[in-house]
Predict the 3D structure of the following.
Amino acid sequence: MRRFGRTMATAALAVAVVGGTAGWASGDSQRVVTGPPPGTAAWRADTVSGRALPDPATAAPHEVARFFAGLDGAARRELVRSHPLVVGNLDGAPLPLRYEANRIAIAATGEPRYASLGAPGRQILAFDPRGRGQVAEVFGDLEHAAHVSVVVPGSDNDATRHDARRGPATGPAGMAGALRAAAGGSTAVIAWIGYTTPVGVGLDAADGRLAEAGAPRLARFTAGLDAVGAPDPVLFCHSYGSVVCGLAARHTDATDIVAFGSPGMRAGTAAALRTGARVWAARGPSDWIADVPNVEFAGIGHGCDPTSAAFGARRVPAADVQGHTGYFAPGTQSLAAFAAIAAGEVR
């Protein structure tokens, strides 16, 4: 009865928001960062050896990969020097070029909040300083990895908080680092904050607007991995990130999609995601996400609980997980299971 009451309360809130009587809910509304990266106009106006450069907004990652394959080293280096923000975010561009371009782009901002991202040895695969900032960081050797995983985080994550002090194995970087350590050296893991995440638990976290904007970006990112010859990835989708993964699922070549601490994936069943990937779900006993009603009404809420029998996902053991962010804590059942999935050990 209490859960039914929460469901009705959510429905009432949805009516209030849609009716315009919940003005408080727009207080943390985020401006979505979309489209190609800064510097795209100058890139489009440039050429190399008389050839037009691939349009970041329209060129498929495989087209980008073919373009760079036809350039010599000097031409590649000149594009990195002249257009670091574009090259650093250009899905399909060679990985070493993207790492170098993003190192230059981070330094060029001159902003202390981003300085640590440019430290020697870091592999920043994407960096966009617009808004709160977006970033993707690689843990491991992505060029030679036998297996690749992508951690897709939820609320309150951005480039400015990527290096913020957090508990061990929490936050996108902490989760990615813990997974890589557990899965072994043949696995590379990417912490991907490539979309505008909600802030807090207001309306942005309750509706699908930001996830709808993020899903095409995630799909393109995975296509970029494919274009440079990386293995098909496993997507580890936390909290609101699982909403993004749910909407992107049918447009990715993921082998597995793992939703944990999920409020729902905007689908009634795993089959409704229309993906060939195996779908997994986990929720710890003390995760507060269990108190979020699994409804979708007037655009509010994200639908069926992925850990429910009705959804039909494979269950990941999580009985010893603490709280909403403890799924990658060393020694937990969930981390062991995640590592086995990431390393391709589960058939």
Observations:
- The CA atoms of residues 145 and 186 lie 5 Å apart.
- The first helix runs from residue 2 to 18.
- Residues 1-27 have pLDDT under 50 and may be disordered.
